[in-house]
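Retro notes (design track)

What went well: tokenization of the new backbones is finally stable.
What didn't: we kept losing track of which sequence belonged to which structure.
Fix going forward: every design gets posted as structure first, then sequence, in one message. First example under the new rule, 473 residues:
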């Protein structure tokens, strides 16, 4: 069956995520290899976003991962993690306790990142209940993405994701992210920005009442908002505030763990000392449906009391086949030395990314490891609030796809940001391809803006032309 037939069929019954039902048919991908995906026509595309920041190991290793799954299926295809346990799940918990920073030793498995966030919130809330305190609130940061289930959405800092579903779970409180730090020019200005943000966090804690706050959740590198991270003084400051007010510090490492920034966990790279780490995606390089909440001994303490019981669970958390695949993923990552490879290749990727900084449409390039953001500026003669529509009409994602590079432009707070996060096996040739494609697309968009074309109609005309050509061939 050819690509067009699959595209047609996809429109009948499949409900894609964050995709309009009435929108165009999707491109159909059928095969992967390393950093590349192949569509149903056999054309090769560079996956510059690790799909959803998750295919850390890339699109290969199917044979090994599949054999691990098969071996587990042959033994036992399923066992819940309620009353019983299974060797693969036990081994994975042991492995994670080994890999995480000291003290993070207890692992609760989930089926996803969002459910890991929710589980962490419940673990934190019940931790306080067991100690005789009713702390239920969670502080998170503006524009942060923590998942889309209704509980996790209460912590999500992205307004357009929250608003249709309000009222949400009570207790989500937002503070500033570290964008101000990212935009500061000098080290001294960054340090001052960190102090201002920490003061705001403290004022929020005091305003809300520390006795009501269970946790503060942060990503060591905040993806939404454009790969925001801050000097270690920020991490130390948050830890000190959490200690002062007895709040649990939760690191949402759903995308930053498992080598993405050159260590197994980004908390290590950025100086966070969390009480709980939340993770998912890279744990199996997305080849299995599995997430984990990794809890510090000090949080487990009240749960050790006789009669104490975490009132939480689900059917699939700790699924033996998913655990076996995750174990194999970690084994391969360790064998090929993935975090060290990322550290070794980061300067090259950074160099390519920073080479875009001088482009007239680029406001700032920032990132860490294999997580980069290219923030675009308002074209000179356009009003600031017109930036979003101009870049939306310019269809940068579509233009990059035409150049066989898959990535996304995000519009957090209406700021246009191109994201780059290739699989951790990507090398210089991939960095170069991504950079050239982005530069070409930005040149094209700049020419059109300067030429005064109405970007939307111009782009629509181009797409219509391509569609007609495709129908003819
Ligand atoms: C930081 C963070 N937390 C949570 C999630 C939600 O993960 P999932 O889509 O597996 O529920 C994501 C997804 O991108 C994420 O980036």
């Amino acid at each position: 069956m050819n690509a067009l037939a699959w595209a047609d069929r996809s429109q009948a019954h499949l409900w894609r995520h964050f995709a309009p039902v009435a929108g165009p048919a999707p491109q159909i991908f059928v095969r992967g290899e390393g950093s590349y995906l192949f569509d149903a026509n056999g054309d090769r595309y560079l996956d510059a976003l690790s799909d959803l920041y998750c295919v850390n190991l890339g699109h290969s290793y199917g044979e090994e991962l599949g054999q691990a799954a098969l071996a587990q299926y042959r033994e036992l295809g399923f066992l819940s993690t309620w009353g019983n346990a299974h060797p693969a799940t036990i081994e994975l918990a042991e492995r994670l306790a080994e890999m995480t920073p000291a003290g993070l030793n207890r692992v609760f498995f989930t089926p996803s990142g969002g459910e890991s966030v929710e589980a962490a919130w419940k673990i934190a809330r019940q931790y306080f209940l067991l100690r005789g305190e009713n702390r239920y609130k969670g502080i998170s940061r503006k524009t942060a993405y923590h998942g889309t289930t209704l509980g996790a959405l209460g912590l999500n800092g992205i307004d357009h994701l929250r608003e249709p579903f309000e009222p949400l779970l009570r207790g989500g409180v937002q503070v500033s992210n570290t964008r101000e730090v990212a935009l500061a020019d000098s080290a001294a200005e960054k340090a001052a920005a960190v102090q201002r943000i920490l003061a705001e966090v403290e004022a929020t804690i005091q305003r809300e009442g520390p006795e009501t706050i269970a946790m503060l959740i942060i990503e060591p590198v905040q993806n939404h908002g454009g790969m925001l991270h801050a000097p270690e003084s920020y991490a130390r400051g948050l830890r000190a505030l959490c200690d002062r007010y007895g709040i649990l510090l939760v690191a949402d490492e759903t995308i930053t763990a498992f080598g993405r920034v050159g260590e197994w966990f980004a908390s290590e790279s950025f100086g966070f000392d969390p009480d709980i780490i939340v993770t998912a995606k890279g744990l199996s390089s997305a080849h299995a449906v599995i997430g984990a909440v990794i809890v510090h001994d000090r949080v487990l303490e009240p749960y050790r009391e006789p009669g104490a019981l975490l009132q939480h669970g689900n059917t699939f958390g700790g699924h033996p086949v998913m655990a076996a695949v995750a174990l194999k993923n970690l084994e391969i990552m360790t064998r090929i030395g993935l975090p060290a490879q990322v550290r070794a290749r980061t300067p090259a990727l950074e160099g390519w990314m920073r080479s875009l900084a001088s482009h007239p449409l680029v406001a700032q390039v920032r990132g860490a490891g294999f997580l980069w953001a290219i923030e675009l500026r308002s074209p000179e003669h356009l009003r600031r609030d017109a930036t979003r529509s101009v870049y939306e009409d310019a269809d940068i994602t579509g233009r990059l796809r035409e150049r066989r590079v898959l990535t996304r432009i995000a519009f957090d707070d209406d700021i246009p940001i191109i994201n780059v996060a290739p699989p951790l096996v990507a090398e210089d040739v991939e960095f170069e391809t991504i950079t050239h494609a982005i530069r070409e697309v930005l040149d094209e968009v700049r020419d059109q803006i300067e030429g005064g074309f109405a970007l939307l109609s111009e782009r629509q005309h181009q797409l219509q032309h391509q569609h007609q050509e495709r129908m003819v061939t």
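Added context from the reviewer: The mean pLDDT is 94.
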